[in-house]
Amino acid sequence: MSWLDRFSTDRNDGSTQVRAGSRRVRDLIAQARFREALAEIEASGGPDAAGWAAEVSQRAAVHWLREAENACHQGEREQMNAALAEAARYYRDDLGPVFREARRRIRSRILELTSAPHWVALLHAATDQRAVHFSTPSLPAPSSYAAFANERLVALVARKLGETALATDALERIDAKRLEAARDLLKKAYPDSLAARIDEVSGEFVRAALHVASGRPDLAVLPLLELPVTQPLVCLERARVAYALGYPGTAMLALSDFRTNHGGHETVRRLHTGVFMAQMAVQCGDAERAVEILETVPLEDVGRRPVLLYAQLLGAVGRVEDGRNVLEGWLATHPDDEEARALAAELDDPSVRTGSGLMESPQE
């Protein structure tokens, strides 16, 4: 039984004043006159008044958040902001999740109206996948969610912020001002050329990057789509979350934006963005495009697997001789590389299958 029901129940002492007060409060609530309802409750006093006031405040918060969402859908920004301001009068810590979810839906709606279709599709995927993978504990998230996880960074940030662990709920409720303490730690997750740009991005980027590092790219999509695409760090993290959510074509677009805004590709931790882009092209079924991308990458400078991937792709698009030449050049300086030698045999005889998995998804 709610406090409102309990307060309005007939009492054996025949207190008509209590019943009349209840009716007045209910009438005020029905008219969304919550401030007056709370004033009436405060004036009435009584042992149930505190519980009754708490319930009315919760109903008021939910009502005004709903009004804000309705105004947002109707394109009435001033009404939306006014409703949000009124809802904020009734905020309590225990209502934090209700406020965050309502604001998330409003922010999502604004992005739906202002973003390109491929970003809207990614936004919807994030919402759908969050509902599927995190409402049912027995259903784990896809392995791709952990592709760019950075447990060490998350642990360092949690310690810096005074949190025992940087769980999803904790990261969501930390305000932007507190997140500033994590900015310098975040720089360690990028090469110097990108770390220098950390100071240019907002606190919401810090939150988004930490969601990715925590293995929750679905939660990073919304704040990343609200940030300028002209910032290379934003482009990079958009590419990561697009891959993690199963949108390789969108990841390619984000990596192209990264290359444009950064002035070229970059090695981030153990992953070169050009190789990443080529792998996304492979996932899109475009081996020719993957070859074109890898032809612009100094492969021997970024590792052996990109060299072998390039050779394998050359064979896949019919440039067997070119692929063989790449492998011969590699084996000349790395004669003990048995995987490269096996791949060379596969190029010479397509019936030989090495199962090397060179075209597998990126992992850091």
Order of helices and strands: HHHHHHHHHHHHHHHHEEHHHHHH
Category from helices, strands and their pairing = mainly alpha
Low-confidence stretches: 6-14
* Percent of residues in β-strands: under 5%
Distance between the termini: 53 Å
Mean pLDDT: 87
Largest sheet: 2 strands, antiparallel
Describe the global form: elongated
Radius of gyration (CA) equals 28 Å
- What percent of the residues sit in helical stretches (DSSP H or I)? 55-70%
In DSSP terms, counting alpha (H) and pi (I) runs of 4 or more, how many helices?
Answer: 22
Give me some keywords for this one.
single chain, 364 residues, mainly alpha, two-stranded antiparallel sheet, 2 strands, 67% helix, elongated
Describe this protein's structure.
The chain is mainly alpha-helical. 67% of the residues lie in helices and 1% in strands. It has 22 helices and two strands. A hairpin with a 2-residue loop joins β1 and β2. The radius of gyration is 28 Å and the shape is elongated. About 2% of the residues have low confidence.
